[in-house]
Amino acid sequence: MELNLQPLAAACFVSGRPFDAGERVASYLVRPREFEIVRYDLRADQAAGFAPDGVVACRWTHLYKPRTKDGNPERTLKLTAETLFLTLADPGAELTPENARLVQFLALMLERKKVLRPKGKAADGERDLFEHAKSKQLYEVPAGAMTPEFFTSLQDQLGLLVGEPRAKAAPAAAAAS
Q1: pLDDT digit string (tens) for 5-36?
Q2: Biggest alpha carbon distance in the chain?
Q3: Which residues contact 54 (CB under 8 A, 6 or more apart)?
Q4: What residues contact residue 97 under an 8 Å CB cut-off, 6+ apart?
Q5: φ, ψ for residue 128, nearest 5 deg
Q6: What is the pLDDT of residue 138?
Q7: 120: left (phi over 0), alpha (psi -120 to 50) or beta
């Protein structure tokens, strides 16, 4: 799963005022009608009244960290399953209920790719612990059953992020040609 997105904005989408280091920022991934995913970053205190045009795929709140001048801007534009997981599961970010199942799914996917390693359960038993293979950082992921209902509820959210699957051509039309 790979998307190309804008990097974290330096200023609030609503007010236009630049973010300060350590300020709480709400980030939204939104799919406007007929367009690619768009990222909106705004002050967390202005998020309550924010209603973007389109469908919100996911939302998270985090502390603003200014970009370094020596960073790789092309790499920050590419959002993969790994970077989306690292963003949403970051201990400094607030995990919203609608993103919890997305984080669970991404953890499962990244565990299969050996990007994450399972490290057991948290002390309360309600979260699974995973170690990121490259950084060795531990991430807590809400524990839950991977039932058919879980995947059905996740299907719409994933469809917004990666697009709806293309309809297959009818077998009769393929045989005729």
Answers
A1: 678 889 999 999 999 999 999 988 888 877 77
A2: 63
A3: 30, 31, 32, 33, 35, 38
A4: none
A5: -95, 145
A6: 92
A7: left
Phi/psi region, residue 69 (left: phi>0; alpha: psi -120 to 50; beta: rest), is: alpha
Which tokens belong to 16?
Answer: 């236009």
- Give the SS3 label for residue 104: helix
Please report, rounded to a whole number, the percentage of residues in the chain having pLDDT higher than 90.
24
- How far the first Cα of the chain sits from its last, in Å, is 32
C-alpha 9/C-alpha 71 separation (Å) is 15
> What pLDDT is recorded for position 70?
57
Which strands form 38-43's sheet, in the order they lie side by side? 38-43, 24-31, 55-63
User: CA 77 to CA 169: how far, in whole Å?
Assistant: 33
At 43, give phi and psi (nearest 5°).
Answer: -60, 140
The better pLDDT of the pair 148, 173 is held by: 148
Residues with Cβ within 8 Å of 136's Cβ and at least 6 positions away in sequence, in order, are none
> What are the distances in angstroms from CA 30 to CA 59, 69, 84, 109, 138?
9, 27, 14, 23, 28
| Burial class, 28, CB count within 10 angstroms (exposed 0-12 / middle 13-18 / buried 19+) | buried
Q: How far is CA 105 from the centre of its chain?
A: 11
